[in-house]
Amino acid sequence: MKHGKCNLNHSNLHRTNDPAEKLMSTRCVTERQPKYLSGLATLLATFLVLFIGGCSNSSDVQPVSGTVTLDGQPLAGVMVRFTPQTGEKRTTSLGKTDEQGRYELRYTSQQQGALIGIHKVQVVNIDGLPEPGMPKAQKVPKQYDVQSELTAEVTPSENIFNFELTSKK
Q: Do 8 and 28 form a contact (C-beta atoms < 8 A)?
């Protein structure tokens, strides 16, 4: 049987007393090993990159919650939007306020939170009819909506942001 540069007869390999043939069989096995180990090492390296890469992405996103009030009253049925101002990733996180003005941001449909870093924050009126059981959304002043200058910095520690909005400029 031929193995690369080797000519081996496996049926006679263990029966031979010829030192040259035994040396050749050892060398052939040694020559084949790196190819096998190389494939295994590549597979292992790929797995580690994917596993570690997946884990590191989730650590860039931290839970974010808080409350929104307008003139001291809970602001229900509005969208809180955090848009990253730095970094390559610019995925906006969103959260809708409940009847007490509380919100929790979602980064994706599967993951809560927002990316670590500085964000522009907008409190946005939601057009359309309110969901059943929710009060009609109150009008958000433009200085918090389209012309918002609100910012928040999401950190690796606790991220609770309460926004006390006023209808006066």
A: yes
- SS3 label, residue 121: strand
Give me the amino acid identity at 48. Answer: L
φ and ψ at 164, to 5 degrees? -100, 95
Are residues 120 and 137 in contact, defined by beta-carbon separation less than 8 angstroms? no
pTM assigned to the model = 0.61
CA dist., res. 162 & res. 169, Å (int): 19
Instruction: List the chain pLDDT tens, one digit each, 169 residues.
Output: 544 554 545 554 555 555 555 544 444 444 444 544 445 454 454 444 334 333 335 589 999 999 999 999 999 999 999 999 987 778 999 999 999 999 999 999 999 999 999 999 999 988 655 566 666 556 888 899 888 999 999 999 999 999 999 998 7
What domains lie within the chain, and their CATH numbers? 2-59 (no CATH), 61-165 (2.60.40.10)
The rounded distance, in Å, linking the Cα atoms of 110 and 116 is 17
